[in-house]
Design brief:
Elements: H1 5-11, H2 14-20, E1 42-44, H3 71-76, H4 80-96, E2 101-103, H5 126-141, E3 146-147, E4 165-167, H6 170-177, H7 179-188, E5 192-194, E6 199-200, E7 203-204, H8 209-219, E8 225-227, H9 236-242, H10 254-265, H11 270-293, H12 300-314, E9 316-320, E10 332-335, H13 360-366, E11 371-374, H14 386-397, E12 401-407, H15 426-438, E13 442-447, E14 462-465, H16 473-481, E15 495-496, E16 514-516, H17 525-530, E17 535-537, E18 548-555, E19 559-561, E20 566-574, E21 580-590, E22 604-613, E23 618-625, H18 627-630, E24 632-634, E25 639-641, E26 645-654, E27 657-667, H19 682-686, H20 692-701, H21 703-709, H22 717-726, H23 731-756
Parallel strand pairs: 1-2, 2-3, 4-6, 4-16, 5-8, 10-11, 10-12, 12-13, 13-14, 19-27
Antiparallel strand pairs: 6-7, 9-14, 15-17, 18-20, 20-23, 21-22, 21-26, 24-25, 26-27
Amino acid sequence: MTPTIEELVHALTLEEKAGLCSGQDFWRTKAVQRLGIPAMMVSDGPHGLRAQRPGATDHNDSVEAVCYPAGCAAAASFDPTLTRRMGAAVARHARSAGVGVVLGPAINIKRSPLCGRNFEYYSEDPFLAGELAAGFIQGVQSEGVGACPKHFAANNQETRRMTADSRIDERTLQEIYLPAFETAVRDGEPWTLMCSYNRLNGVYASENPFLLTETLRDRWGFGGFTMSDWGAVNDRVAGVAAGLDLEMPGSEGVNDARIVAAVRSGQLDEAVLDKAVGRILNIVLRAADEAARRPAAYDAPASHALAVELAKESAVLLQNLGALPLRDWQKVTYIGAFAAQPRFQGGGSSHVNTHGAVSALEAARRSRRKLRYVEAFPADRDQRDESAFLQAVTAAEESDVAVIFAGLPEMFESEGADRRHMRLPDCQNNLIARVAAVQKNTVVVLHAGAPVECPWAEDVSAVLCMYLAGEGVGEAADALLWGEANPAGRLPETWPVRLEQTPCYLDFPGDGVTADYREGVYVGYRWYDARHLPVRWPFGHGMSYTGFVYRDAALDQTTLEEDGTATLRVTVKNSGALRGAEVVQLYVSDATGTPTPGGRVPQVLRGFQKVWLEPGQECEVRFALTARDLAHYSAELHDWYAAPGRYELRLGHSSRDIRATVPLEYRTARRLPLTVDENTPLGILLADDRTAPLVRQVLEQNRQAADNGGGDGLMPPDAMAQMLDAMPLRGLANFGGAQAAQAMDTLLPLLRQALQS
């Protein structure tokens, strides 16, 4: 009879328990042969398997694998069904390689475009990141392999990432940096989860009970085991106590011995260690059982075809004044080394060993396109060759269309280092400007893991962003450029005009010791919208070779109760001549006028749906809304809160292309806590429906105090109103004398009673 987890834990020695809480080597957990406990292999895999080759002594010597679009590109699909398919494909390869857990997805928020690991992350928006992450996790685990979302939490920079202290206020943390993980945990139910290197408000993530126990397990119901990022452990005993189960890759027994000593001294309760061991064993045995039951089913050609399909759906047509799609009769020149040597993945732990990548130039030749190619500049460095530039400019001038394949060399962005600026290599910017000056039909194809400044954007006809689209990048670019596929991607992040306009420009990456998130909840489009800043291309933006119209947007009910649901419907029609995809985006705007500590953001994404339509075809898109969709996080309540009143539901093609707005009234008896004393401003009391009637009554009875406190008629009406708004309760006595003072003595108890009812 197979022993239970509890029986296995009971049968282990203290030393064996401690040993199971750290890795055997770089990629494997420890086995306990006498009890039939196997080792489990884990592997990087956010966009393709990076499993160590069997028999290899170098842990970076990985098997050949298919490289799918990196997180930056996959997110541009705006389609969780695609991330689910990618996850399933990665898992099938993992299972064939003996891997039990795939280390991914990486879902940290893109706080700054300079973060060196942004190519691996999904979005600046937590709703989008969470939905895509849940899809990937579901896909991986549907194939009997565990997923491991990372890096929990607030790992938003590479600068001194192993020690930096991310200092974030409660509302910002709960509203921006935790929700994607919450969605991933609740909807994806991952087998494991990886903590980050950094400290959060002074406490290392690897020993942070607020993150690992209070939030992850107690609030979100996470049932798997937690592991450290590689080398992230600071105090191993504190980590076990806080909820960190597995240390990777281990410390060759050093920390195991510390755990044993802590238990024997009474510093660490052995029952806490037992829970950690039990959680690890549950997943290790589950992975072994799944591997035994399921045959390997990895199909490399089918996986490559999927990589091409995903790349097509993830590319974003940022701009098109008519140069695209290309026509067979045109004289076309390809310019730039990225045409022949595309950059399609990032550097670091997620790097996939693939030999299946096809360049756009090779794809064009396979399709028998008639074109000319000029290298002009290298793909791996910033190097200018004037003779090569002249050749490229001349070729562009002699052509009908010039297509420049540009992007960031790997040395410009990689795990381990943040970018220092947002520019392309100077040689590329210079050449693009020179080509655009002689060729109005200039197209720029970008290969980068994050936004770049585009000073030439207004001078070129079209810009196609491939991000880092995996090994299918060339075949996808070929199909998109020549009109055999219709661009369907949308920007998962705002592309600013220049770096100085970004939300954390003055604070990123901090002083090397602390990183202060002073921009608060104003991350990405929340920042640009609140300040009405121009952007190069907004969040959610993406063009198509066809068009779409929205009509008949309506709610099934105009009022939403606190525990209810409202359904928003809109009809979308393909008004063009080609099959294409529209991503209908739902933004919610708080129009209640209720003061919000930390500020009210203009709008937040609360839904999106991608629909493919034939020419003339239409469909109805629906969104179900609850009170949580209207809410912001309240530090006073330590919970989510939506004020009663009017909200706007905005349906758009992007955050700055709203096609329909529908009002919604929200009803709730919940109110934010309010403490009243002699110094509470009248404006606060008049804005609260519980206290406003009492205050108005007293003001009417003490008109002299109100007039004197409001400026005694010596100022303009608006200034007088602001003076009255700011006047504290005690001002009634200051300006109204004994009668007003007596009224205030009576008013205070009545106000407190009203707030308690």
